[in-house]
Amino acid sequence: MADIAFLLLIFFLVTTTIDVDTGIGMTLPPELDEEIEPPPVKERNILKILINEQGQVLLEDLPSGISQIREEVRTHVTNDGADARYAESADKAVVSIKTDRLTPYDMYIQTLDEVWMAYFELWDAEARQMGYENYQAYRATLEPGQENAIREKIPAQISLAEPDDGSDS
Amino acid sequence: MSKHFTKKSKAKPEISTASLPDIIFMLLIFFMVTTVLRETTVQVRTILPQAEALTKIEQKRYVSYIWMGPEKLIGNRFGETKVQIDDALVDDLATIRLIMYRKLTEEPRLIVSLRVDEESEMGIVTDVQQELRKAGSLRINYSSKRDVTNL
Q1: CATH architecture of B50-146
Q2: Model ipTM?
Q3: pTM for this one?
Q4: Does A12 reside within a domain?
Q5: Fewest beta carbons less than 10 Å away: which of A4, A35, A95, B142?
Q6: List of chain B residues whose C-beta atoms are within 8 Å of the C-beta of residue A161
């Protein structure tokens, strides 16, 4: 009996693949009603990131590198109305990523990654101020359904703009 | 006093194997439950991009995959970028809306995992995303691997 069970066990051991799927989570905006205008967002609250088909990055109309995005997002979100070019407050800050149809997917993921990392670092800093080790530790203490105060204060508002069709410049 | 209680047994102390089948069965059942036998053959190449800001998907049964990448051809050649859902390649992107809408009605907590080849262009990714928006399945996940170069 045990032999048969052993045999089956080994078979299932070999065939099982316990791989955890990792990735960058996003929530797409719901399909817009054409009659309803999207709520206006002040120009200063949007941090515009443009990536062209060569993978070059335009940050707030200035050509820059991928590595500068994280710092720029951090200044944008933590600005608190100090600088007129950046956001009024953290909960109003929006990061907009716009790509071209021919932009390599890899560049897009790298950009998105940098933006998320900026938010992760801000959340970690916020959690440390509240006396937790990091953001993960804070999240573990939350009951299901309980409001996440850190994300409430610094929401990650990343807007994925629809790309140009590539016909114009 | 202690003399009366010290009894020397001749047999060597051995671990009882009576519970061994039970243990084996338990493991067997565990692996049987966790195994997914039906693997979809992916007909497109998906070399996932690397990223740092990763989150794990714990609820794996809510996940539905969409593969995007150059089609694998005979020999080591690759064709045009195609979209695959479940077992079949999707030629008309508008059918994604129907497929995903049906999946969403079956499982409202659906997460769509986009496994996109890193060399793909954003155009097709956006087209699929637009279809997903129309279907109403808004939770997506850009599947990517941990960046090992920066560690």
Answers
A1: 2-Layer Sandwich (3.30)
A2: 0.76
A3: 0.78
A4: no
A5: A35
A6: none
